[in-house]
Amino acid sequence: MGTHQTRVGGDPSDIPAAAVSARNISKTYGDVEALKNLTLEFPRGQLTSLLGPSGCGKTTLLKIIAGLLEPSSGEVEVNGIPVTGPGPDRAFVFQDFALLPWASVLRNVAFGLELRGIGRSEREGIAERYIRNVGLAGFEKSFPHELSGGMRQRVGLARALAVDSQVLLMDEPFSAVDEQTRRKFQEDLLGLVAEENKTFLFVTHSIEEAVYVSDQIAILLPRPSRVSEIIRPRGLRDKDVADIRRDPEYLDIVDQIWASLRFYVE
Amino acid sequence: MPMLSINRSLHLKILSGIIVFGAWEIAGQIPVSFGFPTFFESMAALADMVLDGSLLHAYSDTLRPLAIGLLISAFAGIAIGLWIGLSSWFDWLFLPIFIVMQAAPLAALIPLLVMVYGIGLTSKIFVVCIMAMPVIVLNTAGGVRNTPTNLKEMGRSFLGTEKDIILKVIIPSASPIIFSGLRLGASAGFIGAILSELKITPTGVGDIITYSRSIADYPSMYAAIFSIIVLAVVFLNLLERLEKLLFEGNVRGYASD
Amino acid sequence: MKVLGLRLPGMSSLILWGLLWEAVGQSGMSFFLPPLSSVIGTLIEIFGTPAFQKALSETARAFLAGVFFAIAIGIPVGILMGKNRLVDELLLPWVNIFLSAPLTALVPVLMVLFGFGMKSIIITTSLFGIWIIILNARAGVMQINRSLIDMALSFGASPWAAFSKIYFWAALPEILGGVRIGVIRAVKGVIIGQLLISIVGFGALFELYSANFLMSHFWAVLIVLFALAFSISELLAYLERRVSYYAAKR
Predict the structure, then answer these.
(1) Is C3 part of any domain?
(2) Which residues of A touch B160 (CB under 8 A)?
(3) pTM
(4) Whole-angstrom distance, CA of residue B50 vs CA of residue B57
(5) What is the Cα A44 distance to its own chain's centre?
(6) Cα distance from A144 to chain B (closest Cα, Å)?
(7) pLDDT computed for residue C63 by the predictor
(8) How many CB atoms lie within 10 A of CB A173?
């Protein structure tokens, strides 16, 4: 073990500069410490997973980076600029989709642009393009309740892509869709990371999912939450998407993560 | 298959109407009471009142306090409800008042209103308002407060201003509950309007009811009551249509089911 | 609501409103609004009087009888509608109509048919409360999780056992919700009935006080009525929460 991975700083040459950095983040709710003095860097153009058992504060960290929650102490920088609230440099993909039930797919996808004050025809043009990109062409007029869970999350993804932010924050985006759809999503996500020059922050509780999609995996342990380990799979990116799950490196990392997490699972 | 089920439901509605009106007719034929006219007698009286214009005249009197009262209640009620739902300070200050008003038999205030405002239009408008407003306020506040957090966070994370989030997320999200408050409020407003015409001064439809009772013209009395119930039901159905027209997506299963 | 980090209890603003009432009353701005303190003084004074006791007991009798009929008829009808499609389709339009109809208009009919007494008031009270009880019992039965019934049947439950062990309990949260709203409506019904048939209960008392401009007396009775109505509604909400603890988790 350990030959095919590096800790942060072990091999700095192949890690791009950080697009997002979280420094000494603590978050307390009353007496409960959700996050304690957490520091983590997210390399530009790569996908970093936050992985850990439930209650370890991964979503809290993501929402702090999104600017939806304020940290009790510490700071977040995106491209060197401190985060004080939500900004145009970040887009959020929600676990439960957060679609407007009363709005069509087209309006939902265009909603981020609508809130930025972009004119109707322009934003609908952009939205239509992304609806096609995520494979929902023909569903522009449908309402969310007419779509399956997987299709709803495609709408949420298209909405986040449409505002063209450099950083995509994804909060367990595939946890509410069925297994087959999830696998398809994971493959598509790999394509997206390769094509778009964006930085992805990806919260998940699935070890296999994290290893499959990530350039870097940050393992968070609970109570209070801290980064216990950072794993950077090396050889998986060059493999064909269909072969990753059979790769010895993939299997080793999955085993290794389980070995360190099993102790924390009730 | 859907065609068939529409037919079934329509046929059953007609059948159920025939059963009830038939029972009314038979009970009137027996008669079960000297004060119980038959269905056809009542409908004939209704037709008479419609034709000689007296019913139209009566409704022009009845509908004025009702319409004014409902408009005031709708606008003020939704505004206050939004305010309560959005500000915890207003919630603390005003919500208890409306909770008590909603539980309390506010009709008991009528004698007092008459003492203060006399027996004219003002008192009647007041009665409609105190009956209709609390439920509109409470529903609006509840709907606003129960806007799913994830939708509000979504609005914020995509850089919506506070105004954007209220107008484009919170109000549409609360609109089904606001509309159900409006329907309940309108129904209570009708109760208040008729109550004030029966209790304060007999005008409009209340006058027809009171007068025809006093001269034992029971068919006219039943016809007037029948007409006001029909009017209330039709009005509430129109309100429901309006909601469907305004908020197309409200006919929905929630997307997060 | 928090002030200086301290959580203010939910209904505490009513104290503020009470103080405001007292201040406006003391200032003598309006003849119709005597200070709260003198209203409470009057309240204590009239509480023991025979006229008040009589009004209270008459109202309570009419109310309890009305609620009894509304529940005893409403719940079985609602359950029947939930289980039988034909009954449902025949009755539902009428239940919906009477739920939203201005029932005050029916009181004169009741006065003609049943006289100017208790009977009419009891029926008014029942009419106000029954429709929502029916609708909620129906909704409760209709939303029962199909797999719960299948489970009972697969373990060999008899129809009666399925009803008494599954249907009733699974629908109970909705039924109780309906009873609570129905009872609140019945409170309004009993007062409206008494106002229109103003020779019994609080209706008679209101006539007496307003004819003689006894403002403190009037407000004292209002406070008693509102406090009673509010307590009933809160008590029922409390019971509903106690019994329906599982409703949210289905």
Answers:
(1) no
(2) 115
(3) 0.82
(4) 9
(5) 13
(6) 5
(7) 92
(8) 24
